[in-house]
Amino acid sequence: MEEINRSLFLWINANGDSPGWLIALATFIARDVIAIVPLMIVVLWLWGPRSQLTSQRVLVVKTGVALLYALAISWSLGHLFPHPRPFAIGLGHQYLAHAPDDSYPSDHGTVIFTFALAFSAWHRIWSGAVLLATGVAIAWSRIYLGVHWPMDMLGGLLVGVLSCLFAQIFWLMFGSRLLPLLSSLYRTVFAFPISKGWVRH
């Protein structure tokens, strides 16, 4: 498995002949596209048609729970199964600055794949498909730039599957109490912008 991991990495990883524009594009995808996760969470909670607002907030809470599970699992796996990054062992070419910490599973991969799977399960197939494509692009970019192994990204995908499953079980047990509690807290904290009509009630 390790040999396959290394072979795939070297096949994807950029080198001295790689075009500058592609490295620049990969850098943008690797560093900045992940911002779609907090941005969409905030937008879906604060705005939307009144008829869809409750379902949007259910999606936000379930996705948030899944992300918390995902990050906890990722952190645990990173400590249980430490694995050096490619550049830490002198393999391939590195084009993105990164601390030489453990690589498995990828935090970026874990977050974006969990987010995509959550939308596939609890929103629309098309939105999940778009986000999965985004996740593949982020996974490719971080391997291409030399800071992750392919298996780090596969690990993030598997963590996402497990986290969405846990989140669904959690929601069935506690969702009916959690959403009203969070909504009440939101109305208290955001009372002023709500009163001005800047965000939804």
Automatic annotation (TrEMBL):
Regions crossing the membrane: 20-47, 59-77, 125-145, 157-174
SUPFAM superfamilies per UniProt: Acid phosphatase/Vanadium-dependent haloperoxidase
Q: Which UniProt keywords apply?
A: Membrane, Transmembrane, Transmembrane helix
* GO MF, any single term: undecaprenyl-diphosphatase activity
Give any Gene Ontology cellular component. plasma membrane
What SMART domains does its record include? Answer: acidPPc (SM00014)
Report if keyword Secreted is assigned. Answer: no
Q: Does the keyword Cell cycle apply?
A: no
Signal sequence region: none
Enzyme class (EC, first level): hydrolase
Reaction catalysed by this enzyme: di-trans,octa-cis-undecaprenyl diphosphate + H2O = di-trans,octa-cis-undecaprenyl phosphate + phosphate + H(+)
Q: Which PANTHER family does the UniProt record give?
A: AT30094P (PTHR14969:SF13), SPHINGOSINE-1-PHOSPHATE PHOSPHOHYDROLASE (PTHR14969)
**NCBIfam families for this protein:** PRK11837.1
- What's the protein name? undecaprenyl-diphosphate phosphatase
